[in-house]
Amino acid sequence: MEAVTSLMRVHQLVITELDELLRPLDLTFARFEVLVLLSFSRRGALPLGKIGERLQVHATSVTPLVKRLETSGYLTRNRHPEDGRAVLAEITASGRAVTERASSLITDARFGLGSLDEDECRALTAILARPRAAAGDF
């Protein structure tokens, strides 16, 4: 329980810092994750259900993220050309540009992990890889 509590607290601290860092770009970390996912997809577009699957969140959580990103001009929502019931989220040029800016900000930030050196960061990543893999997160 001690490890879980510590892990969850670090998660909360990092997410808070990420959201503060991304706020000037009209993003949260959750919205940034959607944009990154779309930018890495073959066509720059994915069905909302697939976004939820890949981010491991319920489909109903994806809709408000997508609506907010659409309002910001970072993506568009369109009917799926092959499945009329599905909705595709497609990243826009503006969405790609803000994803690049946000990625740079995030890469340059050290968060609470600035107290760890590179070897410790690699070790932490390796330790966390096993539970992530066990949960199907790779």
Question: Could you walk me through the main structural features you see in this protein, from its secondary elements to its overall organization?
Answer:
It is built from 6 helices and 3 strands. By secondary structure, it is mainly α. It has a single domain (about 1-135), classed as Arc Repressor Mutant, subunit A. Strand 2 and strand 3 (about 85-90) form a beta hairpin. Strands 1-3-2 form a 3-stranded antiparallel β-sheet. It is globular and about 45 Å long. It starts with a helix and ends with a helix.
Summary tags:
138 residues, 63% helix
Write down the CATH class.
Mainly Alpha
Please report the total strand number as a whole number. Answer: 3
Query: Which blocks of ≥5 consecutive residues have pLDDT under 50?
Result: none
Can you tell me the number of structural domains?
Answer: 1
